[in-house]
Amino acid sequence: MEINPQIFKAYDIRGIYPTDLDEDTAEKIGRAYASLLTEENPGKELTVVVGNDMRLSSPDLKARLILGLRDSGLNVVDIGLVTTPTFYFAVAFFGYDGGLEVSASHNPKEYNGFKMVRSKSRPIGRDTGMSELKRRVTENDFIKSGRQGTISEKTGVVEIEAQEQTKDIDLTKIKPMKIVVDAANAMGALDVEAMFKNLPIELVRLNFELDGTFPVHQPDPLDDKNLELTQKAVLEHKADLGICPDGDGDRYFLVAENGAIIRQEILRGIMAQIALKEFPGETVCYDIRPGRITRDMIEAVGGHAVVTQVGHSLIKQKMLEHNAVFGGESSGHYFYKFPYGTFEAPIPFILKFLVYLSEQSKPVSEVIKPYQVYFHSTEINSKVASVPETLQLIQTKYADGHPNLLDGVTIEYDDWWFNVRGSNTEPLIRLNLEAKTPELMAQKRDEVLAVIRGEVG
Asked: What is the CATH number of the domain that holds 422?
């Protein structure tokens, strides 16, 4: 088949199966990845990890991916059905040379794709190898190997991960709680079972059966409608907390006991303060989408705040550059620095939050209330004729503000601020805006949207 070049994203490879990518594509990606890794590690016999999610096409794609890797001389360790964080852990903790996870994360059932890392689970993405992978796949430019790689299996990785990542957390501080988890028939169910084992938690399980057709709803907690089951169940069961992982288990959203969704910028700020209590004065990274409370909370405890571009691979790369101990993205990724690597780690994220919550001795809604000081538009998408022209128009229109061009256009005023970014794949502008009052937020949201949509001169 002719490969759709659009499957090569800023952070991973993703497309509709079998229209955009199929088994032949998977084999080519394996060969391209092996070629890239071999050139970066001349003369070394390389061993990489392969895992997969529960999508119906994942087993066949994985089989051909492994064929491409082995035919190119790489040894493969198949860790089976795992979340993306468990895949990252396996690569880094066991000291392998890299790996690939077959997954399309939170996308609808017809999608699939690949996430790729080097040793220590260092990301491959925009500016860190993705363009070279794309070139090799589309041009069939692969290194020929004189050897056939081996294949082996490693099981029980998530149990090892849970043990290793909780050994420094005092789990005895976690008080008895009732927690609702909606796994959306996706991979997060595996990590949740591992993290709550032997804890005084009454777990209300929703949609824990792995099913790649996603019969109940799409596993994307960034869309509020996919949180409604959890919100309803939290109220019905009088639970203390609700948890919603995404499709491949590397993003988490939380729901308070009153059914309200906990905003990521507040949750990120809380987790940053917990990390900075462990590592005083260190660096925390977070993405540029408005969430000023995060910066306030980092600086309030003497931490160093570093703003990054949007995207999990870009944030991890920036964390490595700054030796950051913690990072958080507005879409629900939470990253930790370990002695063996820096990557998403929901197990310590959730359990450290439960320890913190147990120490507060009050409902989650009351814990977060003091941090609800800014008012957010949520992310709003608008179709435009030209993303670059629209970004330039915004920059010109708001030239009297304080601009930042790190990712799209960010403009700051004293009492309101916003970021506009273009989509990587569609003619869309994404707006995130905050203000110090709800009235100002609504006024400025509508004003900026009118500019974006060409409704003003």
From this structure: 3.30.310.50
Is the predicted pLDDT of residue 425 greater than 70, yes or no? Answer: no
Q: Please report whether residue 188 resides in a domain.
A: yes
State CA 72 to chain mean position distance: 30
Same-domain pairing of 127 and 9: yes
Say how far apart CA 273 and CA 93 lie, in whole Å. 26
From residue 324, how far is each of 15, 64, 283, 286 by CA, in Å?
A: 32, 37, 5, 10
Q: What's the structural domain count of the chain? A: 4
Reported as a single tens digit per residue, the pLDDT across 399-408 is 999 999 999 9
Q: Which residues are catalytic?
A: 105
Q: Which residues of 156-187 are buried (b: 16+ CB within 10 A; e: fewer)?
A: ebbebbbeebbeeeeeeebeebebbbbbbbbb
pLDDT digits (tens, 9 = 90+) for 365-390: 999 999 999 999 999 999 999 999 99
pLDDT in tens, 149-165: 999 999 999 999 999 99
Cα–Cα distance between 396 and 441 in angstroms, integer? 21
- Are 81 and 127 in a shared domain? yes
26 and 147 inside one domain: yes
CATH of the domain at 226: 3.40.120.10
